[in-house]
Write a structure and sequence with these properties.
alpha+beta, Arc Repressor Mutant, subunit A, 5-stranded mixed sheet, 12 strands, elongated, DNA-binding transcription factor activity
Amino acid sequence: MQHFKTLVSYLNYLELPRPEHPMLSVFNSKGDGNLPCPRESSPPIMNDCYSISLKKYVKGNLNYGRTKYDFTNGAMIFIAPRQVLQWDNSVVFEQKGFSINFHEDFLKGTELAQQIKKYGFFSYSINEALHLSPKEEKQIESIVNNIEIEYQNNQDAFSKEIIISHLDTLLKYADRFYERQFLNRKELSNDLLEQFNQYLSEYFESGQLQEKGIPSIEQIADKMSISQRYLSDTLKKETGKTTMEHLHLHLIDEAKNILLQPNKSISEVAYELGFEYPPYFSRLFKKKEGISPTEYRGKYKLN
């Protein structure tokens, strides 16, 4: 797999114009203009750059990681360094919008270098893109216009600081708009929670817990065709609990049933639930229930 370590080499590969800055590029369609079109197809590739873009008119399928996404108008997409990208000639790039690409080293030594890692949407799959309202789109475009003005000006001692300040503002607004999107998609949130619970129930009932151990969150998300971070963020917004907390609740509920079988030791219960180390099971149980598995068994033992 090709891995582009510089922004210039990545843009050259895409057959896009060279950037005004070696670690930053800004493409912005205005009026009747279009964004420059990248190469028609690409096998899986990676690069060391962040990408923030708004695509208004794009048709076709793009593979992003393991996910295929059918573009819709007004999708705002965030791509982190070392994400795997792939597309073929079924994608029709009739682009209106903008595309900002910057090497991760562009942020080196700034507060944003650490803060950007906290924005979960850089870990979302492309089918979890941010869909802007017309009002939100105008706000974002205003910020991007400010970035472009500074980008096109002759660079001076203030340029980088000003551009990074605008990038910081852009990401804060994106975070706010994602919050709105979560709230507006209650039906989707409920559906994801149902899928999550159904997967765990089937996993437990099929005996895979004993055979394969406790499923990882990545494994569950992959089965649901959704990114791990988006799943956790969605459940957190909807229920106040992360995916790991929901998984633990399922395990504890299952443990309660097994603990009432007097012929099994606490260690046997732990192993049956997929725990490699019984003491960890006991600590988790006590943390969630306030009493140890032994105390629970004594309290609720059937006569």
